[in-house]
Amino acid sequence: MKKPITVSGLIQTGVIQDNLTTSLPKFKGQSDFSSDITIQIALEQIQPNPYQPRRIFPDIELQELAASIAEIGLIQPIAVRKISETSYQIIAGERRFRAFKLLNKSEIPCVLFSCADADMAVMAIAENVNRQDLSDYEISKSIRNVENLFPSKTSLAESLGFQREDMYRYFAYDALPEFVIEKLEANPRLLSRNAAADIKRIFNKISPEHYEFALTAFKEAVALLELAEIDQTKIANFISLKVKHFSDGEILEVNNKKEEFFINNKKIGHFFSSHKGVEVKIAVGVLSYEKTEELKEILNNFLNSSSSQS
Amino acid sequence: MRDFGVKLKLAKEFVGFMGSSPEFRSLFEKKSQQYHNTYSALDIRNAKLKLLGVEPSALQTEHKLPPIINCRMAKGGTGKTTICGGIASALSMFGYRVLMIDGDPQASLTGLFGINWATENITHIGELMLKFSRKEEYRIENAVRPLYEGNMLDLIASDISLVNADSWLMGVTSREFVFKKFLDANVEFFSKYDVIMIDSAPSTNLLTNTFMCACQKILAVVWLDGQSLKAMQILVSNVNELNDAFHSMGFHLDVHIVANGYHPSYSPCKDAMSTLISSYPDKINNTVIPHAVSFMKQVELFKEENSGTVLEREPNSIAARAIIDLSKSLVKEYDIKLSGIQVI
Q1: CB contact under 8 A, A72 and B246
Q2: Per residue of chain B (344 residues), what is the pLDDT tens digit?
Q3: Is A201 part of any domain?
Q4: How far is it, in rounded angstroms, from Cα B5 to Cα A204?
Q5: Nearest residue of B to residue A110, measured between CA atoms
Q6: Which CATH number is A204's domain given?
Q7: Residue A5 included in any domain
Q8: Which of A211, A280, B60, B253 has the fewest CB atoms within 10 Å distance of its CB?
């Protein structure tokens, strides 16, 4: 029977060589993944990130995370930087840190980074901004928090990877009245940055004597919003309408039904009034050129006389 | 159930019996004194236990997961399935209880044992893991097909629907360890076996990763050509990546390599072999699997007489010899024990 082929046999007989310089990549041994990058740090030496944009840490989520850590361990160490001989600050991983606290652990695996304040702020925001679970208001606050670390708004936007216009939408929250800010602190999801920017635009437009009325309208809208009876995107419109009606001195009769004009039972046009205005439409060919001019003049006279009365 | 037994000479080797043939025959109560007896895997196991002075019924198995051998390569056609099936049947003939898991949607291992995945009702490993991760009811026993009597060789078969595994694994937390958790949760069932063999798909995906993450050492099957060496590079980066990602959990995956398809008159085989041994001197199994005709004989799928491993079909061939030698060395390499008893 033929002899079985073995590696050692092939080398001994010189059929194959075992000392080539080869190009195949090496398998890394256990010690090649240097464990000195990950270090264990006592929980009491670690402080949360002051630039942390996340303001809410729901208990249920933390408990779920803690349960998964208890079961399979921490897959990714948290990122920290050294701020003094005995204390560290979290760059990323506050949820994991809190979960470790829940588990009554004394130490947590950390990766040490050296980074400046500005970098740290950007890292913390960038880590969280792209996740859906951070609200616009929380992002806006954290941007405000780190704004002065950057020479200009443009460089701030660049560092964060935002469009400049979009970043200004985040700033719109600052122009909102105090009572909304209080509500946002409790429920940051109340208003999106787009809704805030729309509301800010309305408040910039109205004259100072109408401000108080607009504020009342806004409060009314927020109350409705909290009852989910109005969509947040409709609030700006709601305020502007209320203010308009207030300045008109009366509530315009809103007639959503068209009143149609007929000649010989044939529809030739309609009258329509809504909050957008009053519309009179007459079909082509009904009025001659002279009649049209006459109508214009009547309207002009009517409007001039009514404005001089008021 | 397959009816497979080996003749006296091989049976003696599998038991590790040095004495005379009549003495050997006397180990088996029910066998007649005829020369033409065949010995099944269960016979060999019982004979081994008898020689060790252990009563099979008195064996108490610890609830501990057995070693797992996952046949891997990032390329198809390197002999993963042939070697996986071959080792599995050889190990069971050595008296070890073997569970095979077909982890390849192509279901080649299932086909190797003559099971028609197109007509049979198959519960594959993906379905079991899905039910486990969704906390639904499942029974592994119903998914297991006995191949050799006495649960010496069992198979969890596969079919094409196993490809779905990747889509649901995508959404599972710590998906790399779903299979490991599944094994741990059913340790009572899996500890019945002395070794678990997994045949993997040639690709690198979530399913192959979750199998690898349950192992301590994968078995890389390399065909001796340039394309396989290229696939080896992909496998190395895959293994290094997993080790990097889960290093902090104390996870480390090692690799054991089997060279397959050696032919003395093909010089590229020798070049590839030289590259392989120079690159991974301490990871290669000493047994080289030859390019042998016996491996190629399963030409008609699902035909009973065509199915089976090379050991079943041609136990005295050079190919079967290589598989037996390889299996013997893997017992040491993977620390496979006979119901917790170390036998060398």
Answers
A1: no
A2: 888 999 989 999 999 998 888 888 888 876 565 656 889 999 999 999 999 888 877 777 678 999 999 999 999 999 999 999 999 999 999 999 999 999 999 999 999 998 988 899 999 999 999 999 999 999 999 999 999 999 999 999 999 999 999 999 998 888 899 999 999 999 999 999 999 999 999 999 999 999 999 999 999 999 999 999 999 999 999 999 999 888 777 789 999 999 999 999 999 999 999 999 999 999 999 999 999 988 887 767 667 667 889 999 999 999 999 999 999 999 999 999 988 777 76
A3: yes
A4: 92
A5: B248
A6: 1.10.10.2830
A7: no
A8: B60
Q: A260 to chain B nearest CA, in Å?
A: 59
- Residues A200-236: tens digit of each pLDDT: 888 888 888 888 888 888 888 888 888 888 888 888 8
Which among B240, B275, B318 is the nearest to A24, CB-wise?
Answer: B275
Whether A28 and B318 lie within 8 Å, measured CB to CB: no
Q: Are residues A145 and A232 in the same domain?
A: yes
Q: Identify which of A271, A268, A269, A267 has the alpha carbon closest to the alpha carbon of residue A258.
A: A271
Whether B208 and B68 share a structural domain: yes
Higher-scoring residue by pLDDT: A55, A304: A304
Task: Say yes or no for a CB contact (<8 Å) between A4 and B237.
Answer: no
Rounded to the nearest angstrom, the minimum Cα separation between B221 and chain A is 15
3-state secondary structure chain A: CCCCCEHHHHHHCCCCCCCCCCCCCCCCCHHHCCCCCEEEEEHHHEECCCCCCCCCCCHHHHHHHHHHHHHHCCCCCEEEEECCCCCEEEEECHHHHHHHHHCCCCEEEEEECCCCHHHHHHHHHHHHHCCCCCCHHHHHHHHHHHHHHCCCHHHHHHHHCCCHHHHHHHHHHHHCCHHHHHHHHHCCCCCCHHHHHHHHHHHHHCCHHHHHHHHHHHHHHHHHHHCCCCCHHHHHHHHHHHHHHHHHCCCCCCEEEEEEEEECCEEEEEEEEECCEEEEEECCCCCCHHHHHHHHHHHHHHHHHHHHHC
ipTM exceeding 0.85?
yes
- What's the gap between Cα A267 and its chain centre? 50
Least Cα separation, residue A4 to chain B (angstroms)? 6
**CB-CB under 8 Å, B277 with A18:** yes
Looking at beta carbons, which residues of chain A come within 8 Å of B318? 1-2, 4
A3 touching B (Cβ < 8 Å): no
